[in-house]
Structure formats: C-alpha cells, structure tokens
Amino acid sequence: MVSSYQEKGSSDAFYPNNISLAASHIIRDEYPGIEQIADFYTYSTHVTVPRGEMQANQPKTRFEQGKSNDMIIVEPQYFSIFRYEWLAGAPMTSLSQPFQVVLSESKARKYFGSVPFDQILGKELIYDDSLHLQVSGIVKDWNKNSDLNFKDFISYSTIRLSFLKHAAGFDDPNQPDSMRKCRRIRK
C-alpha cells in the first residue's frame, strides 16, 4: 500500500514510506486474513541516562541522536512480525505497558556500557528531556537485510499518555478520530 500527499497549490506529489493511521485500522477491520499488523512511528531525539543508572556516582550522560532514524514508537505485535532474539525481557510483555522501551544490544551497550543485560531491565532513560521510560527488554541487533533497522522501541501506549500525542498527530482531528469517522460512514 502506498500513500501520496500533495501540498495545497502544488502539482508535485510526495510518496512517503508509510500509510495513515486510519488506513491501518481499516485494514485490521476489513481484511481478517491478515495475521499481524503493527503501527509504528519513527522518532528521533536525544536520550539521557540519569545519574547513577550506568554506574554509581557517575553524572548523567546525554546521547545525541544525530541523523540516524533508528527509534520507533511501536505496538507490541511488532515483535511477532519481526522475530528478534531476546537477550533480556520477553516479547509478550516488554511493550505491553506505557513508558516502556526495548533496546537493541548495541544501544544497551551505548547507554549502559558493560552492565549485564538482566541488570539493565528496569533502568530509566529520558527521551527528549521529559519522556521517562523504563527498559523492559533487550534484543539482539537485527542482522537481516532490511530498511527497518531500529534500535530503540518505545511502547505505543506511551503516545496517548505523554506529549507524544501532539508530535504523532493524536490530537489532530484528522488523524485517530478520522478512523472512527470512516467506520461510521461505511456502516
């Protein structure tokens, strides 16, 4: 499925590599043969490891994201579609609650150094200066050929309970409510 957008007053179309939130929900409702579907949004921000989360008496450490787009806000079933090897945590529960984050092995090492993976679970990371998340899982880095090489996986349920609802368009009447309107119109 492909989306296309056109700026008002422009004859040029833009073809992003995504579909609308409303479309994904319509697909869930209208095509029961689809085994799994998982919404996700790419996200890019800096990450802060609070004082003491890496090692005692260490000051907080801030990691800039740069130009890489390796963070996503994702539904838990993402890990049913892409079967990562789990090093700590469990795919069924690691993104089941708001304010959880699953890290790839390389990001866990970047943020926490040589701390054993099982000791990283429950530690706090702060995204964008005010989004406090708890590490709930660690997966081996994806080593298969893919454009989806993500390394920070933030629980989707965090959106509605944080400032992310504004960034992701959840407060936009043309986004999530539009899917409800589509359902009512079709019925």
What does this structure look like?
- The protein has helices at residues 21-30, 78-81, 105-112, 117-120, 164-167, 176-186; strands at 5-6, 13-14, 40-43, 47-49, 61-63, 71-74, 86-88, 100-104, 124-127, 131-139, 152-155.
- It is an alpha+beta fold.
- Strands 3, 4, 5, 6, 7, 8, 9, 10 and 11 form a nine-stranded mixed β-sheet that branches. A two-stranded antiparallel sheet has the order 1-2.
- A hairpin with a 3-residue loop joins strand 9 and strand 10 (131-139).
- The longest helix has 11 residues, at 176-186.
Residue-averaged pLDDT: 78
The description of the largest β-sheet is: 9 strands, mixed
The gyration radius over C-alpha positions equals: 18 Å
Low-confidence stretches: 176-187
Q: Helicity range of the residues?
A: 10-25%
* Beta-strand content estimate: 15-25%
SSE succession: EEHEEEEHEEHHEEEHH
Number of strands: 11
What is the end-to-end distance? 23 Å
Label the overall shape.
Answer: globular
Overall number of structural domains: 1
Please work out how many helical segments DSSP would assign.
6
Coarse structural class = alpha+beta
Overview features:
187 residues, alpha+beta, two-stranded antiparallel sheet, 6 helices, 22% helix, globular
